[in-house]
Design brief:
The chain is mainly alpha-helical and 208 residues long. The protein has one domain. The protein is built from eight helices and no strands. The protein is globular, with a radius of gyration of 18 Å.
């Protein structure tokens, strides 16, 4: 499992073939089944082969995390609010004002069943398996962001690819500094929930 050839094949299957394949039209149960098998494989490799315990790190620098995240969130909030206001005013905060119960439910489901698994796959697994093979950390972070963007190609939307690439850069930088799945998941959830709240949810596949 640690040979370079094995990891290249692993990378191509998990981070290229599977997400690109999702863009094609075939039964959803097949897509979900393949995705579940992929998660089982990743969980096995992390816990049994790499020896990673997916548990909370008590030495996390929460003060630094919240300071950095809130600065970035403020910039994101201002820019995305302006973008929605300029391009689709009717969508601006529409869900939270007209369907508050749906808003709360979706945020919970998204955070628990989408964000956390994504961060295990795209940060915890990706960094553990491939970081040692790329000496340039900046290049590795860009590669991680690009792969994260490819993971959303099934939306078939250029804006989504751009947003996920930029988000991938932020998440990769956070994980590179903290090595914490919990912290990067929190950051991912904050930004993703905000995009749904501000009115960009439809573009990102959120129920409206």
């Amino acid at each position: 499992m640690n040979s370079t050839r094995y990891k290249i094949i692993e990378f191509l299957v998990i981070f290229m073939a599977f997400p690109i394949g999702l863009a094609f039209n075939y039964p959803i149960w097949i897509k979900l089944s393949i995705g579940l098998l992929g998660l089982i494989y990743i969980g096995f490799v992390l816990t049994k082969h790499e020896g990673i315990a997916l548990k909370r790190n008590k030495a996390l620098d929460w003060k630094w995390f919240w300071k950095q995240t809130m600065i970035k969130f403020t910039i994101i909030a201002i820019l995305t609010t302006l973008l929605v206001w300029l391009t689709n005013k009717t969508a601006l905060f529409n869900v939270v004002m007209t369907k508050p119960y749906l808003w709360v439910i979706i945020l919970f489901i998204y955070t628990l069943f989408s964000v956390y698994p994504q961060e295990i796959v795209y940060r915890t697994f990706f960094f553990k398996r491939y970081l040692s093979h790329i000496s340039d950390k900046r290049l590795f972070i860009v590669l991680n962001a690009a792969v994260f963007s490819v993971g959303h190609v099934f939306f078939k939307n250029g804006w989504v690819l751009l947003l996920t690439f930029l988000g991938g850069l932020l998440f990769a930088i956070t994980y590179s500094k903290t090595r914490s799945t919990i912290l990067v998941s929190l950051e991912h959830a904050i930004y993703g929930c905000w995009l749904f709240t501000v009115g960009m949810g439809e573009m990102l596949g959120f129920p409206q």
